[in-house]
Amino acid sequence: MSKLWGGRFSGVTDTLMSQFQDSIYFDVRLWQADITGSIAYAKALAKAGVISDEESETLQQGLQQVATEFADDQFQIKLGDEDIHTAVERRLTEIVGEVGGKLHTGRSRNDQVATDIRLWLKSEIAQLRSYLVEAQWAIISKADEYIDVMFPGYTHLQQAQPVRFSHWLLSFGWMLERDKERLDDLSKRVDVMPLGSGAMAGNPLGIDRLFLADELGFATISANSMDGVSDRDYLIEFLSWASIVQLHLSRLAEDLIIYSSQEFKYVELADAYSTGSSIMPQKKNPDSMELIRGKTGRVVGSLMGLLTTLKGLPSTYNKDLQEDKESVFDTVDTMSMTLQISRAVIQTLTVNDGIIYDKMDSTMLATELANYLSAKGMPFREAHHVVGQVVQKAMGLGQPLNSIPLAVYQQFSDLFERDVHKVLTFHRAADRHESHGGTGKQAVRNQLEALRTVSEFDEFDNTDQE
Ligand code: ARG
Fold first, then answer.
1. CA-proximal residue: ligand 1, atom 2 (nearest)
2. Tens of pLDDT, residues 444-461
3. How many CB atoms lie within 10 A of CB 149?
4. pTM over 0.90
5. Phi, psi of 23 (to 5 degrees)
6. Which residue in 10, 156, 435, 436 is the catalytic one?
7. Bridge partners of 155?
């Protein structure tokens, strides 16, 4: 099969060189976008009077047939099909004959590939967005279910203050909310059509680019053909977005790995999302979460890779740009899995509130105790110091902070009164934090409702999620 660009050449491409440069093995996944783009272009060519309406019709029907072959898994890649664009045009010409050669008039693979990736990515983004929102919904449902479960809030991985389990879980819902905003924002810059930029100088045939954009469902068209063919910023943004989402998911994963370990046992992951060991019969490993944590590496790696590819690239199209695809494809596949698995793990995990309660250290009430003293007039700094001494005493006595006798408290300050024991419960301590965004029951209810609203939870049909 002769090359699209074979006219100028008398020698043949080395086999190793073909293997090296062919992108069909991965860009074949752009077939639908490529054909959709070509159908629109065939219409635009007729509209500009470059080809007749009959020719355009023939091209469109031929392209439809190529699409059917792909959809039915009947398309055969042949030697010489170096990329998806070449493959589609080669097959089109086999089907419709000579007129197939008119499709590419005024078009370059440079504006074609740039258009294809954007078209393809737009639909992938819509899918990823729905997976992200579904993960939020799983968070909302679990948070609602366990709203009364107390939980140790950690700083430095040391028990710090009692919070609600839901408060901890919802914190990830807000991370995902920001991720959703970022995705919506970057989507605007994906939704720009470069077709009609040609190789880089533009289109000489009076092609109606706005018509093309309308046909293809793009919001807008690129303003500079040189930028149009080489802009890959939106892929950098997409990979940055994915990296941030992965960071969030990996932190959730790490928490769940810790919380499901023997030492904690706060939560149990469903069997469906855990695996066993080939040698240790007792093991139940949180592989789902470990893989989510681990896959962060490849997503961040893809971002670094593309940044490096683009750095210092001379103006407009260079073959280096072909390297944009595999890492983006891999990232879309990875994110699609990690978002769905995260959603499922959250949906199916169970919380061992009894064990959590037993493991909550009474010293987490120390801040409450200091607040108690300052409410009775002692400056907080002094109260902090006094309570530090009480904590030391309780540890010496080997007794929980909230059950040492009143007389012992009073050795440190006569502001301690009979009501002190009532103050010192995890629920009381948590519920005092009713500031907006705090861990008090009402405050958590409010943030739950707020997240429900922004995540469009009401559109969520509970029945088909289990
Ligand atoms: N396979 C190429 C890519 O992915 C298509 C564009 C090729 N353009 C060219 N002038 N060689 O970037």
1. 322
2. 999 999 999 999 887 665
3. 19
4. yes
5. -115, 0
6. 156
7. 158
Rounded to the nearest 10 degrees, what angle do helices 324-348 and 287-310 cross at? 160
> For ligand 1, atom 11, which residue shows the shortest CA distance?
319
Give residue 173 CA to ligand 1 midpoint distance, Å: 40
Q: Give the dihedral of Cα atoms 57, 61, 62, 66; nearest 10 deg.
A: 150
Q: How far is residue 327's CA from residue 445's CA, in Å, rounded to a whole number?
A: 41
- Residue identified by tokens 């070449």 is 86
Query: Angle 233-259/109-145 helices, nearest 10 degrees?
Result: 30
Q: Are 389 and 396 in contact (CB under 8 A)?
A: no
Cα 109 to middle of ligand 1, angstroms: 6
- All domains of the chain, ordered by start, with CATH? 15-105 (1.10.275.10), 110-205+217-358 (1.20.200.10), 363-432 (1.10.40.30)
Amino acid at 114: A
- Binned at pLDDT 50, 70 and 90, residue 58 comes out as very high
Active-site annotation holds for 455: no
Give CA–CA dist 195/228, Å, rounded.
8
Contact 434, 442 (CB under 8 A): yes
pLDDT digits (tens, 9 = 90+) for 84-97: 999 999 999 999 99
Parallel/antiparallel/unpaired status of strands 267-268 and 350-351: antiparallel
Structure token digits, residue 3:
């090359």
Q: Which two tokens stand for residue 409?
A: 């408290």
What are the φ/ψ torsions at residue 161 (nearest 5 degrees)?
Answer: -145, 150
Ligand 1 cavity residues, CB under 6 Å:
23, 27, 83, 109-110, 113, 317, 319, 321-322
Indicate the pLDDT class of residue 2, thresholds 50, 70 and 90: low
Asked whether the beta carbons of 256 and 169 are under 8 A apart, the reply is: no
